[in-house]
Specification:
globular; about 60 residues; about 0% helix; 6-stranded antiparallel sheet
């Protein structure tokens, strides 16, 4: 997997694939997010305790 460029110009750095093969990224502000579509196109916040997808990120934090 590759890092993602977001619509706001920031970079989401690829960290790993989780148990369900979802790519997990870290935003420049340190927040971990995952791609629920498995292809780097729809990022969601993750719960800290179980690392499950929660809410979709705002449009400016979605990949270009």
């Amino acid at each position: 997997m590759n890092n993602l460029t977001l619509k706001n110009g920031q970079t989401a750095t690829f960290l790993y694939e989780d148990f369900w093969s979802r790519p997990v990224y870290q935003l420049e502000n340190g927040i971990k997010v995952c791609c629920v579509n498995l292809n780097g196109t729809y990022l969601h916040t993750m719960s800290e305790d179980y690392e499950e997808p929660q809410s979709p990120l705002k449009d400016e934090y979605q990949p270009v």
